[in-house]
């Protein structure tokens, strides 16, 4: 697209604080930020560089509970979700009353997720009180959430890519052997149409968070529910499944956005 690019390592020195001011050696019109690291992105924005996705949007997506909190009260459907009580001391005990309330609200099995996680690796299903207590004990010093298990979508979901406010393509992921449909857990990916209500909900979610690019994970419940918005969604599997050049669409969005910005 005629854009000169250069790769910068995210080693902290792309932008840092010196004499109380942001020191930044980059002179570029924009930065395509492949990391989820939030501080350098924030500093780059402070010196006026347009960062794709913005530091704030990436930060919201990185934390699954924060994503639910930001999306709530905006007409976005999500599974019922409660933040887990985080403990600072490993010997701290999760309150029995909390466990009883979770069981009363969500029943079993119940989904437990670490707020920071990828590839389905930090997503767990607990079948009974003992396994729930053991899991919470294991992860209680990290941020986590508990969520109603949506049986109707077990092992299936829809990954929708939204670029520049438009849902551009989707793939259905199906896993017969695990409730998690992630490709990394063995989920099979195939191109899928995007129902109008899902496209609308994903586009609204991207807009609320302020994302240029994202992959939205939607449970195939009736009606569909959003479980996650990924600011750094990988697109190789999506391109393979759909034949759509996701990278090119994202690049076109970046160029169209940057040409309208005042010159730095
Ligand atoms: N509440 C739920 N009910 C049923 N299945 C769920 C639920 N939450 C998650 N899943 C399944 O687990 C998978 C992984 O969950 P989620 O997308 O929240 O985390 P992740 O994939 O690890 O994060 P990332 O997409 O950032 O890598 C989902 O794709 C879905 O198949
Ligand atoms: Mg996911």
Walk me through the topology.
Elements: E1 15-18, E2 21-24, E3 30-32, H1 39-46, E4 50-52, H2 55-62, H3 64-71, E5 81-83, H4 96-106, E6 110-114, E7 123-126, H5 129-139, E8 144-148, E9 156-163, E10 166-174, E11 188-191, H6 196-209, E12 213-219, E13 225-230, H7 236-242, H8 246-258
Parallel strand pairs: 3-4
Antiparallel strand pairs: 1-2, 5-8, 6-7, 6-8, 9-10, 9-12, 10-11, 12-13
Adenosine-5'-triphosphate binds next to β6, β12 and β13.
Give me the CATH superfamily of the largest domain.
Answer: ATP-grasp fold, B domain
Number of helices: 8
Number of strands: 13
Residues in helices, as a percent range: 25-40%
For the biggest sheet, the summary is: 5 strands, antiparallel
Radius of gyration: 20 Å
Which whole number gives the mean pLDDT?
96
How many structural domains in the coordinates? 2
CATH class of the largest domain: Alpha Beta
* CATH architecture designation of the largest domain: 2-Layer Sandwich
- Quote the CATH topology of the largest domain: D-amino Acid Aminotransferase, Chain A, domain 1
Give unreliable regions as ranges.
none
Separation of termini? 20 Å
- Strand ordering within the main sheet: 11-10-9-12-13
Structural class: alpha+beta
């Amino acid at each position: 697209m005629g854009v000169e690019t250069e790769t910068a390592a995210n080693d902290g020195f792309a932008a840092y604080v010196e004499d109380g001011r942001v020191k930044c050696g980059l002179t570029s019109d924009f930065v395509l930020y492949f990391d989820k690291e939030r501080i350098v992105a924030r500093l780059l924005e402070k010196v006026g560089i347009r960062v794709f996705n913005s530091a704030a949007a990436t930060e919201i997506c990185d934390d699954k509970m924060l994503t639910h909190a930001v999306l709530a009260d905006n007409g976005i459907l999500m599974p019922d979700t409660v933040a887990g009580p985080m403990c600072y001391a490993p010997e701290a005990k999760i309150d029995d009353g909390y466990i009883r309330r979770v069981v009363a609200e969500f029943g079993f099995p119940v989904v437990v997720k670490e707020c920071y996680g990828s590839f389905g690796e930090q997503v767990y299903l607990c079948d009974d009180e003992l396994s729930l207590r053991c899991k919470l004990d294991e992860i209680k010093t990290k941020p986590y959430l508990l969520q109603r298990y949506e049986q109707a979508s077990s092992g299936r979901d829809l990954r929708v890519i939204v670029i520049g406010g438009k849902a551009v393509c989707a793939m259905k992921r199906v896993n017969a052997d695990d409730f998690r449909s992630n490709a990394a857990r063995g989920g099979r990916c195939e191109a899928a149409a995007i129902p109008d209500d899902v496209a609308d909900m994903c586009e609204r979610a991207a807009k609320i968070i302020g994302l240029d690019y994202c992959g939205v994970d939607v449970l195939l419940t009736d009606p569909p529910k959003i479980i996650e918005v990924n600011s750094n969604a990988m697109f190789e599997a999506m391109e393979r499944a759909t034949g759509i050049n996701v990278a090119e669409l994202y690049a076109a969005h970046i160029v169209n956005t940057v040409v309208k910005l005042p010159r730095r």
